[in-house]
Amino acid sequence: AREVKLLSITGHYHFRGLGFEAFRVHTDGSLGEELYKFEGFDQPNFKQFDDPPVLHPGEGIEWRCHYQNNSDKTYTYGPDATTQEHCILFGAYYPTSTVQEAINCTHDKDTAGHDVSTVAIVPGE
Questions:
Q1: Would you kindly state where each structural domain of the chain is located, as residue ranges?
Q2: Mind spelling out the 3-state secondary structure of 16-78?
Q3: 93 falls in which pLDDT band (50, 70, 90)?
Q4: Which CATH fold topology does 4-122 show?
Q5: For 87-96, what is the mean pLDDT?
Q6: d(CA 88, CA 69)
Q7: Average of per-residue pLDDT across 53-72
Q8: Which of the four pLDDT bands, split at 50, 70 and 90, describes residue 118?
C-alpha cells in the first residue's frame, strides 16, 4: 500500500440522479472530509484540486448517489439508462506504478443476491 494524491474527481449517474457526494474514509472506517459534492443531474463538473488531498495507506473514498424514481418501475444496476441506474466515481491520482495503472471498481451480486462493490488497484502492463 502507498499514499496517493487525488488530482481530480467527478461522479456519474443516469437522469434519475439528484446528486453525488464523495468522502474520505479513514483507516478505522469512519468518514472524513467531503471531497466532492454535486447537486442535480446535468453533467456533474470535474473538481480539480489545487492542493491535492493525500489518501494514506488503508484510507479510501466512499461515494453516494441520490435518486428520485417518479415511476412504478424498479430499476436495477447497469449501463442502460432506460431500465437501469448506476453510481460511478471517476478520478485521477498520482503516483502510479505504471502508465496503465488504474483503480477498478466492480459492482455485482454475491451468492445471496446482495449488491457488492470491490475496489482494487490494477497495475497494468
A1: 4-122
A2: CEEEEEEEEECCCCCEEEEEEEEECCCCCCCEECCCCCEECCCCEEEEEEEECCCCCCCCEEC
A3: confident
A4: Jelly Rolls (2.60.120)
A5: 86
A6: 18
A7: 88
A8: low
| Measured distance CA(7)–CA(2) in Å, rounded | 16
For residue 116, give the H/E element and its range. strand 115-122
The answer to whether the pTM exceeds 0.85 is no
pLDDT in tens, 9-60: 998 887 787 888 999 999 898 889 999 999 987 777 889 999 999 999 888 8
Which residue matches cell numbers 445471496? 112
Give the span between the Cα atoms of 94 and 111, in whole angstroms: 35
| The total number of residues written for the chain in this structure | 125
Count of C-beta atoms within a 10 Å radius of residue 11: 24
Residue 52 C-alpha cell reads as 491535492
Cell (9 digits) for 27: 483507516
Cell of 74: 424498479
Q: What is the CA radius of gyration of the chain?
A: 16
> Using CA atoms, how far apart are residues 32 and 23, in angstroms rounded to an integer?
6
Can you read off the three cell numbers belonging to residue 19? 446528486
